[in-house]
Amino acid sequence: MTKAVYKLRPNDNWRIGEHESWFADMAAHGFFLKKMGIPFAKFVKGDPKKMRYRIEVNSGDEITSEQKQMYAENGWEYVTSYNLFHVFSSPADLQAPELHTDPAEQAFTIETLDTKLTFSTIITITGMLLLIGMQAAVWFLDETPTLVLIEGSAVFQVIFGLFLLYSTYLSLQAAISIRKLRRNLIEGKPIDHHAPWKKRFQTQIIIGILLTIVMGLIAIIPIFQLAKIDTKTLPESSPDLPFIRLADLENDPDFIREEPVFFNDDVDRGNQYSFNWSPLAPLQYETSEHGFIPGEIQKYGEEYSSSLDTKVYQLRFPSLAEPVISDLIQSRSFQTEREDFIETSHPELDLLITYDKHKTKMVFAHKGNAVMYASYYGHTNIETIIENTVEKIKLISE
Length: 398
Description:
InterPro entries: DUF2812 (IPR021359)
Protein name: DUF2812 domain-containing protein
Largest sheet: 9 strands, antiparallel
CATH architecture of the largest domain: 3-Layer(aba) Sandwich
Pfam family, one: DUF2812
Strand content: 25-35%
Keywords: Membrane, Transmembrane, Transmembrane helix
Number of strands: 15
Oligomer: single chain
Organism: Cytobacillus gottheilii
Radius of gyration: 33 Å
Structural class: alpha+beta
Number of helices: 10
C-alpha cells in the first residue's frame, strides 16, 4: 500500500517557480505530490526520482480533459489543481518539451490571475481603510485613547488590526509580484523553474507560528475578560477593597444609603461596584454610591443627599498612569472648564489633581502603578476625599 505523507506547504500560491522547485526537490527525496490543501500538501512515498513539475495557470477554475490529454501526449501527466493553478509532472530523463516555449504567450495565461489578485487587493485595502476609520472613531472620538486601550477590548482590536494589516500587505505583494511576472513574460523572460524556496518557506513557518500564538491570544483575551467582569451590590463596609466609600466621607452616624433599586440581576444599581480586567490594567474597579441624611434639610427645602462615583486602576506599566488621568479629566471636562482642574503636590502621591466647585469635588491621584478617581457631590471638603484616597491607593500601589 502506498504511504501518504502530509507536509506543510508554502503559502503563496502565486510564487509559481518556487512551488515547481519545491515539488521537484520533494520528489528527489521520494515524496511525490498528489494533492494541495491548506495548510498541508499530500505526497505519496516512493523511491527518490528526478522529476520536473510545471504549473499551468488557467483562465477558469477547471482544466479540460482535452488539455490534460494534449499535455499527456507531450510527456506531462496531470497531478492536481488548486484555485487557478494546475500541476503537471514529467520524469526528468524523459526530457519532455516545455508546456510553454514562448514566454510572451504564457503571459496571457496569467491575465485572469493578475485581474483576480488586483481586485482582491482593492477589496482588502478598502476594508482595511474602513476598519481604520471605525477604530479611529472609537479611539479618538471622545479624545480618551488611553482609557479605551485599558478598559475595553482595544488590545484585541490592535492585535486583530495588525493581523489584517499583515494580510493586506500579503495581498498587495501578491498583486504586485504577479503583475511583475506578467511583464517579465511579455518581455521574453521565462519563469525560473528552479527558484530557491527553502529560506522563504522557513520564514513563513516562523511567521505562521507567531500568528497562531497571536490569534490564540486574540481568542483568549475576550474570554478571560468575560470571566473576570462582574457587578455586585456594594457591601455596607469594605475595608479591604481599594476604593473610598461615601459613608467614610460623610462621617455622620445618621447617614444611610438610598433605598435599593434592583433590576433582574439582583444588584442595587444605586449602590454598586464593578470589577474588570484587561492585559494593561489587570485590576479595575468602578463604583457608584448614593445616600442621604434623614431630617437634614438644605436651604431650598430638600433633604440632604450625596453621591460618589469612583474608578480605580492597577496598571501593568506605571508610565500609563498620567495618560490615564489626562483621559479621565478629558472625559469629565465636557461639563467643566479644563483650567478648573488644579494640580497640587502631596508627599504620599506621585500626582494629585483636584476639582472643587460648588458641591462637586473630584480627585485624580496616582501612586506607582495605581490610579484613583473620585467624583463626589455633597458638603464634605476636598481634603477629606484626598485623605481617604491616599489610604486606599496604598492597597494596590507598587
